[in-house]
């Protein structure tokens, strides 16, 4: 009875002994109530999710590097750079009498992967993870991002809606990305020649984008019509698919 709340419950029980169900409820609710601060639970959960995000992104990034190391185009370029820098020759000279061929091969593989990491800018879902992209830092930096967006939005309205300035390349690509409903990472993963095509066709203009969108939809329909897998699927939907009823005579 050291707690004031429990003393109130005790006094109420003495005054109303017939309400035993209520007394049981208050007793067990206080006894079984969590003793840990909810804020600590939330913080630990956010940290756990952030760690999982970071290591998951690192795993995806390493998978992308391992894949690029097997692509002849990038492997040949990385090997040539390593030879020019004397890394592979240096390895072989040092490893003649000290290491096995397997050890030399593994070290050469690591050198090639390191060169690919430094020379190739991977974008999209497999890009190199940044600590500021994890959930914990996103929550901490949310006020900063909000203020930054408000300032940017006011600048956009002032420059292009009030003053009527022409869009720059970055602004045009931003409008195109919004029309396509793509995230920044998805848009960055596109090839440069695709972005140049967007600019050449002036897709930041809504009417031009609608024409482009219809063209892409028609092209997709043609590809699906010629694809053997889609033909088999349509044939199956027509003959065996859901909604078809058959009656078999006994």
Describe the structure.
The protein has 250 residues and is mostly helical. Helices cover 73% and strands 0% of the residues. The chain is built from 13 helices and no strands. Helix 5 runs antiparallel to helix 6. The longest helix has 31 residues. The C terminus is likely disordered.
Largest sheet data: none
In whole angstroms, how far apart are the ends?
A: 80 Å
Average predicted local confidence, pLDDT: 78
Structural class by SSE content: mainly alpha
Principal-axis shape equals extended
β-strand percent reads: under 5%
Q: Which stretches are low in confidence, meaning pLDDT under 50 for 5 or more residues running?
A: 243-250
Radius of gyration: 32 Å
Fraction in helix: over 70%
Instruction: Tell me the series of helices and strands, N- to C-terminal.
Output: HHHHHHHHHHHHH
Number-wise, the strands total 0
| Number of helices, where a helix is a run of at least 4 consecutive DSSP H or I residues | 13
Entry summary:
The protein is built from 13 helices and no strands. The protein is an all-alpha fold and 250 residues long. Helix 5 packs antiparallel against helix 6.
Which key features would you list for this structure?
DNAJC25-like; mainly alpha; single chain; membrane; disordered C terminus; 250 residues; 13 helices; extended; chaperone; transmembrane
């Amino acid at each position: 009875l050291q707690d004031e709340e429990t003393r109130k419950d005790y006094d109420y029980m003495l005054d109303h002994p017939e309400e035993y169900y209520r007394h049981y409820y208050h007793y067990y609710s206080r006894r079984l109530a969590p003793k840990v601060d909810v804020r600590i639970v939330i913080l630990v959960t956010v940290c756990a999710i952030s760690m999982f995000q970071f290591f998951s992104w690192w795993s995806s990034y390493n998978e992308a590097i391992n894949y690029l190391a097997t692509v002849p185009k990038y492997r040949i370029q990385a090997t040539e750079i390593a030879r020019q820098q004397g890394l592979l020759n240096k390895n072989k000279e040092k490893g003649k009498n000290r290491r096995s061929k397997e050890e030399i091969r593994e070290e050469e593989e690591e050198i090639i992967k390191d060169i690919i990491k430094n020379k190739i800018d991977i974008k999209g879902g497999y890009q190199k993870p940044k600590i500021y992209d994890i959930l914990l830092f996103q929550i901490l930096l949310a006020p900063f991002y909000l203020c930054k967006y408000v300032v940017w939005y006011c600048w956009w309205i002032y420059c292009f809606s009030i003053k009527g300035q022409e869009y720059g390349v970055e602004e045009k690509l931003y409008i195109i990305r919004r029309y396509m409903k793509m995230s920044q990472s998805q848009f960055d993963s596109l090839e440069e020649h695709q972005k140049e095509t967007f600019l050449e066709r002036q897709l930041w203009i809504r009417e031009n984008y609608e024409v482009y969108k219809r063209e892409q939809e028609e092209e997709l329909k043609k590809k699906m019509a010629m694809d053997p897998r889609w033909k088999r699927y349509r044939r199956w939907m027509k003959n065996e698919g859901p909604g078809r009823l058959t009656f078999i005579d006994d």
